[in-house]
């Protein structure tokens, strides 16, 4: 009988060995795909079981942290001390509604599960520290942000400030914003109405309009057209272009491209046309450069890039492709003055100014200054990852444009926005939208003071129909950009 | 009688009781460590009851150890520590899950004191109580069952009682017996519920062992050969058919694939061990799979379990998408999968995972999820190795033990235990459809725990008799030998043999004249032709232990050199046709008892043979089951060499 007993013993061992194989399959081989399934409530519980990392500004202001909620399963909840100031940058982290923006993009790091934190986590496990997520410090500066909030006031609009030499985004605000505390509450009696309110708000306050919405840039785009004109060598700063001074017309077409308020341009050279923002000249120049060249330069400035991440995803700014425009000179002229098919995010507008300020080089814009693991070890530094996004134009072209934009402040449309003590260049814009909408007021500028250089783009929507005729870039967006520029440069 | 030569020394065999004590205390220490771990993870403090709990377990260990020292001194030293380890870890896991229940209650109570007014009682206390009961059960079995063969006597009673226990939940109304889709419980008023099948499995295994021991020759010999398989005769299919029908009935009426599979599996495996015929395995497995598939196709609740197994995520998908009020399948399997996946290799640490997401039966059938999630694959492997070790010691006992009933019983208990581990863990880990068996020793559930402690007691008892050394032989003086030969010759006048050699008595049946000495019996009793029973002085140099225990001091007879671990395999020492050693004798007992008892005249029977050997098997089969091993020495006489335990069976100890 012993032989069969031995065989049965081996069989029993194989039975248990099959359990070991199954354990291996469940716990190692397939573990990740199982864990990430939607039905696994542990993922949600985990996110609220221990403190998530903080989100801070560059000056150390806490803009998101985790506080004990008193609940059993969801032990912590997310809190945003500055409420709506950073609402559409940090996003929210909610039990029922998931996460958005930084909370979503850097979720792994804030949760403490990012691979860069694994060493720190392992050490913490060994030393018995309680689990915690890593902190994320943004490049945003709270004074800049507060200046933007104050300057925009109740106006709908966006403003972006960045350091042209590094690409670091110093301020970014779009009004209206929202208070993420409501939807992030662990109490569904609070979070559900807040979420419904957000979903039904047609202003989309939870959308970061500075990077996730496209607008016609209007005259701001003339910087790109000017750069193309100068860089290709077809035109010079002060040489006459041969364009009509008042209204651009096309033979055989009833379309016209008049200047703002049908004004007559003081000169047809690029410099004076930029000062007065003459559509007739820049439309003409755009036509002469051709769709191919315009599209090429638009792309160099960052248009038509679908994959820009800061690390939040940035909506693609558009300039119509050459084959799309074809031989349609009317469309090309309108595109060249920032109308028609041209669209830009406020961040893109700031990047245009930054290119001029930085010798033609556009640095990759970024928002994350550093990531600090729970044990204090810095695992990521934004300054180590600065890189050139593109060379928009030759340095000499940038110098020429710099001169032209300074003269916009000195002699042109941006005179009212000049700030004492700041060496600045600027460009205004008034972008037409539909007939029933106020035009957009744009103002992009850059300035140097205290050894710092900052580029700013401001866009104000001015929804009051009564002032529709009075909307101008310098009048509405100028003060906003100035306030942000002063805050960023530390000029009082 | 003249003075006998000096009695040889008893062979020295390590009893390993101190090893057992140390290992058991180590097991307690591990459980205590885990307990402390839970407390520290929960609130940063050592649990309040930790020292009391540890002291209690340690006391249990010491008591059990002392008891085994007394009642089963040669028992395998691993059974107790392994069982204590599993039981202790089980207590910790249940305690860990209780913590969640009481915290949930506290949170709910704070919100709605009216609705949530009674705190959950927790299962840890209950489990502790049943651990104590289990130890008492162990003590009772060890003290009352002095020899496992006594159980053989109750074969049919075991069968009836076992069937009753297994069947009773199926007959009772569902309100009493149904839980979690399986009708395998009996709930008593007052919250106590038991799973009678846990005890039923013990009784049925005991019955299977006794039954197959008697029937094995009929089952193994008669057959036809078809396609390389030995097909048993139709009428021999009876027992397996009955068992199959029974298993299918359990499956249908109790919806309990686990119990059904366990019983039928144990029966088929024992049948295979008893008959050494692979064909029985083929039949059994085919029949069970066929029946189970058919039932899974037709009976809705079994079907549902199979569906949950094949599509574990349907439940949660349904719950998330279907309109409210839809009846969705259980999501327990998917929660269990998430638990295991979350645990990963090293686990989250005790009290740091969320195994309670499994919900119902989280501390019973699904307790392995807690192990997987919080102790990780490493912890799960360790646990499985402990189970494996337990089962393998059981099989080792089955190999070592010298009687066939003991072999079948030990193997049956081991197989049942292994099957239960596999069925339960396999269900939780989605190897097979989920069934309703509790994880042995780990799961909360009093009846199962007590039943498992009884299994431990039986294995300890079996391993004690397996490892117990053969008592030394007392050589006979020449006078005694001469007297014996004379007596033998006188008793068998028709078989007179010339010379000094007395012809041993052939089996005479009940009518045979009384033999001069009972202990000459075993060897002579079954001797065949030409066998010379006592061929001269056995030689004091190679003592042969008689079949009795150390207690039989005055035992006079027993020449020869067959036994003793040294001389066992040595043909030069073994006098042909000598009475066999202890092992053979004990094996003979059951089968030959009829003759033995009836031809042995009372007063000088050795005391220990009393209750055990007076058992008369109720089965007709009078075969001597010594002929287990057909292999050795083709020329050997049937009663001699084949029955002699081979070297492997002579080894003692682990």
UniProtKB/TrEMBL annotation, chain A:
Record field: transmembrane: none
InterPro entries, per the entry: Beta-lactam/transpept, Beta-lactam/transpept-like, PBPA_dimer, PCN-bd_Tpept
Region listing for Disordered, in residue ranges: 181-211, 240-262
Domain Penicillin-binding protein transpeptidase: 157-480
Ranges of Polar residues composition bias in the record: 181-194, 253-262
Superkingdom of the organism of origin: Bacteria
Stretches with biased composition (Low complexity): 240-252
Domain Penicillin binding protein A dimerisation stretches: 52-136
Protein name, UniProt field: Peptidoglycan glycosyltransferase
From TrEMBL, chain B:
Composition bias, Gly residues: 525-539
Biased amino acid composition, Low complexity: 560-569, 632-643
Biased composition (Pro residues): 510-519
UniProt superkingdom: Bacteria
Span list, region Disordered: 491-654
Membrane-related topology note: Multi-pass membrane protein
InterPro entries per record: FtsW/RodA
Protein name in UniProt: FtsW/RodA/SpoVE family cell cycle protein
Keywords recorded for this protein, A-Z: Cell shape, Membrane, Transmembrane, Transmembrane helix
UniProt organism field: Catenulispora pinistramenti
Positions of transmembrane segments: 21-38, 50-71, 78-97, 128-145, 154-176, 196-214, 235-253, 259-275, 280-299, 375-395, 407-429, 441-460
Subcellular compartments: Membrane
One Pfam family matching this protein: FTSW_RODA_SPOVE
């Amino acid at each position: 009988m012993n032989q069969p007993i031995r065989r049965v013993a081996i069989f029993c061992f194989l039975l248990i060995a099959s359990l070991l194989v199954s354990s291996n399959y469940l716990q190692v081989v397939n573990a990740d795909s199982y864990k990430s399934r939607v039905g696994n409530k542990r993922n949600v519980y985990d996110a609220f079981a221990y403190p998530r990392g903080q989100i801070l500004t560059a000056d150390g202001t806490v803009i998101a942290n985790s506080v004990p909620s008193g609940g059993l399963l969801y032990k912590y909840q997310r809190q945003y001390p500055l409420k709506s100031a950073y609402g559409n940058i940090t996003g929210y982290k909610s039990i029922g509604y998931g996460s958005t923006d930084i909370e979503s993009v850097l979720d792994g790091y804030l949760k403490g599960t990012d691979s860069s934190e694994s060493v720190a986590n392992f050490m913490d496990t060994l030393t018995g520290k309680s689990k915690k997520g890593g902190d994320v410090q943004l490049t945003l500066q709270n004074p800049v942000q507060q200046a933007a909030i104050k300057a925009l006031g109740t106006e709908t609009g966006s403003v972006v400030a960045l350091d042209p030499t590094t690409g670091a985004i110093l301020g970014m605000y779009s009004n209206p914003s929202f208070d993420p505390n409501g939807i992030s509450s662990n109490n569904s009696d609070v979070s559900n109405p807040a979420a419904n309110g957000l979903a039904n708000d047609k202003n989309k306050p939870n959308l970061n309009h500075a990077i996730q919405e496209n607008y016609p840039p209007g005259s701001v785009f003339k910087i790109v057209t000017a750069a193309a004109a100068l860089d290709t060598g077809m035109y010079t700063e002060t040489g006459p272009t041969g364009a009509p001074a008042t209204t651009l017309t096309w033979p055989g077409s009833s379309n016209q491209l008049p200047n703002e308020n049908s004004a007559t341009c003081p000169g047809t050279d690029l410099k004076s046309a930029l000062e007065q923002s003459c559509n007739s000249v820049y439309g003409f120049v755009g036509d002469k450069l051709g769709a191919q060249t315009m599209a090429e330069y638009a792309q160099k400035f960052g248009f038509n890039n679908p994959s820009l991440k800061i690390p939040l995803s940035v909506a693609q700014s558009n300039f119509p492709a050459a084959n799309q425009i074809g031989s349609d000179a009317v469309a090309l002229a309108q595109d060249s003055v920032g109308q028609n098919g041209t669209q830009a995010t406020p961040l893109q507008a700031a990047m245009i100014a930054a290119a001029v300020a930085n010798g033609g080089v556009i640095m990759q814009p970024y928002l994350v200054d550093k990531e600090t693991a729970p044990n204090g070890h810095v695992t990521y530094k934004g300054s180590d990852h600065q890189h050139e996004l593109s060379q928009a134009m030759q340095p000499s072209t940038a110098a020429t444009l710099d001169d032209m934009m300074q003269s916009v402040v000195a002699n042109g449309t941006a005179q009212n926005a000049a700030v004492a003590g700041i060496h600045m260049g600027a460009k205004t814009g008034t972008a037409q939208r539909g007939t029933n909408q106020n035009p957009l007021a744009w103002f992009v500028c850059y300035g140097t003071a205290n050894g710092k250089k900052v580029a700013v783009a401001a866009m104000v929507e001015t929804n009051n129909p009564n002032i529709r005729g009075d909307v101008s870039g310098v009048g509405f967006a100028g003060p906003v950009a100035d306030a942000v520029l002063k805050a960023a440069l530390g000029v009082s | 009688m003249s003075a006998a030569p000096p009695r040889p020394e008893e062979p020295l065999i390590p009893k390993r009781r101190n090893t057992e004590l140390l290992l058991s205390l180590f097991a307690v220490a591990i459980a205590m460590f885990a307990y402390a771990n839970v407390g520290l993870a929960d609130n940063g403090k050592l649990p309040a009851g930790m020292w009391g709990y540890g002291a209690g377990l340690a006391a249990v260990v010491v008591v059990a150890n002392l008891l085994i020292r007394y009642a089963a001194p040669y028992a395998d030293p691993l059974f107790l520590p392994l069982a204590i380890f599993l039981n202790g870890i089980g207590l910790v896991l249940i305690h860990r899950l209780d913590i969640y229940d009481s915290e949930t209650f506290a949170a709910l109570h704070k919100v709605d004191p009216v609705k949530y007014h009674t705190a959950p009682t927790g299962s840890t206390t209950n489990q502790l109580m049943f651990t104590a009961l289990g130890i008492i059960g162990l003590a009772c079995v060890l003290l009352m069952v002095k020899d496992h063969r006594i159980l053989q006597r109750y074969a049919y009673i075991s069968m009836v009682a076992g069937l009753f226990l297994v069947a009773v939940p199926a007959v009772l109304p569902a309100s009493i017996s149904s839980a979690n889709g399986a009708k395998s419980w009996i709930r008593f008023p007052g919250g106590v519920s038991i799973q009678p099948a846990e005890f039923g499995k013990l009784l049925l295994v005991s019955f299977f062992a006794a039954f197959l021991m008697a029937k094995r020759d009929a089952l193994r010999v008669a057959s036809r050969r078809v396609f390389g398989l030995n097909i048993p005769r139709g009428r021999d299919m009876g027992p397996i058919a009955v068992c199959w029908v029974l298993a299918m009935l359990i499956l249908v009426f109790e919806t309990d694939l686990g119990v059904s599979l366990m019983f039928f599996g144990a029966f088929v495996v024992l049948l295979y061990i008893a008959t050494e015929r692979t064909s029985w395995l083929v039949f059994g497995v085919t029949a069970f799979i066929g029946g189970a598939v058919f039932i899974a196709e037709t009976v809705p609740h079994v079907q549902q379990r199979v569906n949950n197994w094949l599509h574990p995520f349907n439940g949660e998908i349904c719950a998330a998408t279907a309109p409210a009020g839809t009846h969705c399948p259980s999501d327990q399997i998917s929660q269990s999968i998430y638990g295991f996946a979350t645990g990963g290799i090293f686990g989250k640490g005790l009290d740091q995972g969320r195994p309670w997401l499994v919900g119902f039966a989280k501390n019973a059938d699904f307790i392995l999820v807690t192990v997987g999630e919080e102790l990780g694959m490493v912890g799960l492997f360790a646990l499985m190795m402990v189970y494996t070790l337990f089962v393998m010691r059981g099989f080792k006992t089955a190999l070592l033990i010298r009687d066939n009933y003991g072999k079948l019983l030990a193997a049956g208990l081991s197989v049942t235990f292994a099957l239960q581990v596999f069925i339960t863990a396999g269900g939780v880990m989605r190897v097979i459809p989920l069934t309703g068996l509790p994880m042995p020793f780990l799961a909360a559930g009093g009846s199962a725990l007590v039943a498992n402690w009884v299994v431990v007691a039986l294995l300890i008892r079996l391993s004690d008799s397996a490892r117990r050394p053969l008592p030394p032989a007392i050589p006979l003086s020449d006078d005694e030998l001469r007297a014996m030969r004379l007596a033998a010759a006188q008793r068998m006048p028709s078989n007179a043999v010339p010379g000094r050699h007395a012809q041993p008595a052939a089996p005479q049946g009940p009518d045979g004249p009384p033999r001069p000495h009972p202990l000459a019996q075993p060897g002579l009793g079954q001797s065949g032709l030409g066998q010379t029973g006592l061929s001269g002085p056995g030689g004091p140099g190679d003592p042969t232990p008689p079949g009795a225990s150390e207690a039989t001091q005055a035992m006079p007879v027993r020449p020869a050199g067959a036994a003793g671990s040294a001389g066992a395999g040595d043909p030069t020492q073994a006098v042909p046709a000598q009475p066999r050693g202890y092992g053979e004798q004990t094996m003979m007992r059951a089968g030959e008892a009829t003759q033995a008892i009836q031809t042995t005249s009372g007063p000088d029977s050795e005391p220990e043979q009393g209750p055990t050997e007076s058992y008369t098997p109720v089965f007709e089969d009078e075969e001597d089951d010594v002929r287990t091993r057909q292999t050795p020495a083709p020329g050997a006489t049937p009663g001699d060499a084949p029955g002699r335990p081979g070297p492997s069976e002579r080894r003692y100890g682990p």
